[in-house]
Automatic annotation (TrEMBL):
One of its GO terms (cellular component) is plasma membrane. The chain crosses the membrane at residues 49-68, 80-99, 127-150, 178-197, 204-224, 244-266. This is Formate transporter. It is a multi-pass membrane protein. It comes from the Bacteria. It holds the Pfam family Form_Nir_trans. Residues 1-24 are annotated as: Disordered. Gene3D superfamilies: Glycerol uptake facilitator protein (1.20.1080.10).
Length: 295
């Protein structure tokens, strides 16, 4: 029986102690291994599977632009109502992540951890292959949905103007701001991916919280932002050169740095430091909730 000297609560029965152990949150090392395993599975997928899933994700991310445009066009003007309209930004992320489609910024964490755990040329090549296929698929999907939303008679004039205003708002940033805000956005998406395995039952609320904060902060995201900015291009308000050089390039670099070189690297270093402590024994996993990919 536990004594007060060992710091534990006295007079707990064996069944009660088991309840305590069962309800402990998973260690950071367990979360790291869950995400690393998911990333390794993604790296093993065929190009065709990655491409179609990434294209679907790009199309689905158009829901964010659609939801924000519809809300902005139907709410009165004013900062208070912009706070409400920002919830529309969550729509695309919810649909993509819950449907397990390939989102580039999600892979800046999941697919990077296997490479950091085993830094070989083969793993680096697999990462470049996945990033290339998923990024191209995402961008093709977002550009296609923006073109369709503009040219097909789907929305009224007021909603079309709301879509244009969303793109104009992004292009108020210069390249330095695109890059800096992209770093924060990449870090926030990586944080979301890290949180989900320990709180699978609250996945939807985690996605809403993180992406809503991204919308409020006007942080730049390469996938959803490409739908918003390409809408300006197809409307004739912005040249393709500015799309690639002012928005896409700096934002992509910022997302990669925020998700991979900051969050993933620090998280991996934390686990390596914990595991390298002398005499440190790895605790048995506490059976964290199964993720969608385990099913």
């Amino acid at each position: 029986m536990a004594t007060q000297e060992d710091g534990k609560t006295p007079n707990l029965s064996q069944a009660e102690q088991q309840d305590v152990d069962k309800n402990q949150p998973p260690r950071a090392a367990v979360l790291h291994e869950i995400i690393r395993t998911q990333g390794d599975q993604e790296l093993e997928r065929s190009v065709a599977a990655l491409w179609w899933s990434a294209l679907a994700a790009g199309l689905t991310m158009g829901l964010s632009l659609m939801a924000m445009g519809l809300l902005n066009s139907r709410l009165p003007d004013g900062e208070a109502f912009k706070v409400i309209a920002s919830f529309g930004y969550c729509a695309g992320f919810l649909a993509v992540i819950l449907a397990r489609q390939q989102l580039f910024t999600e892979n800046t964490l999941t697919a990077v951890l296997p490479v950091m755990s085993k830094p070989t040329l083969g793993n680096a090549g697999r990462l470049v292959r996945l990033w290339t296929v998923v990024l191209v698929g995402n961008l093709c999907g977002t550009l296609l949905v923006a073109y369709v939303m503009l040219h097909l008679p789907i929305f009224d004039t007021r909603t079309d103007q709301a879509f244009l205003e969303i793109g104009r708002k992004i292009m108020e940033n210069d390249t330095g701001q695109m890059f800096a805000k992209g770093i924060v956005s990449g870090w926030m998406i990586a944080t979301m991916v890290w949180m989900i395995p320990s709180m699978e039952s609250a996945k939807m609320w985690i996605i809403i919280l993180i992406t809503y904060l991204m919308a409020l902060g006007d942080f730049t995201h390469i996938v959803v932002g490409s739908a918003e900015v390409s809408y300006l291009v197809f409307a004739g308000e912005l040249p393709w050169k500015d799309f690639w050089l002012v928005f896409a390039g700096p934002t992509l670099a910022g997302n990669i740095i925020g998700g991979s070189f900051i969050f993933a690297l620090i998280s991996h270093a934390q686990i390596r430091s914990e595991c390298s402590l002398p005499g440190k024994k790895a605790a048995a996993p506490r059976h964290p909730q199964r993720t969608d990919k385990d099913q």
